[in-house]
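Exercise: predict the fold of this chain.
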Amino acid sequence: MENKQHETEEEVIDTAAESEQSDEKVDSADNVELIEESEETDQEKESLLAELEDTKTRLLRTQADFDNFRRRSRDEKAAAAKYRAKDLVESLLPVIDNFERALAVEVKDEQSKSVLQGMEMVYRQLKDALEKEGVEEINAVGESFDPHYHQAVMQVQSEDHESNTVIEVLQKGYQLKDRVIRPAMVKVSE
């Protein structure tokens, strides 16, 4: 029986030794797995950091685009408010021209003079209303020719004026605030 017990003890010892060897193999395998997992987590961290940086960059660009859009919208809205009367002014300029032609007619009788005075009053009211909106006549006679404000339709020789000077206005020009609505049609000296 002692032999059997001795054999059992040896078997237990052998089994324990095998178990230790097996545990060592498992421990080294676990260490390899931990190292591989650590490398994977480092790569994942780097990948996540790169993705985060990319997201931050896109967010900053989107914010900048939105700020630019908001500024452009505000500027366009301000310009629209500033020049809101442009279409109306353009349609009224021929009316002003016709008033000026009518007022240039010489009248001889009293009835025509009273009609002319009424026309002058309406003309002044119209001009005052346009001035309140920021409409101004473009000064031209005696000025140096400027293609932004003048449209030359004739060029004449003149000894009394310097070259490239506006001699006569054939049709008045107008501007709304700082924008030219209609350039003045002028005669320019050579």
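Check your answer against the key: The CA atoms of residues 78 and 84 lie 10 Å apart.
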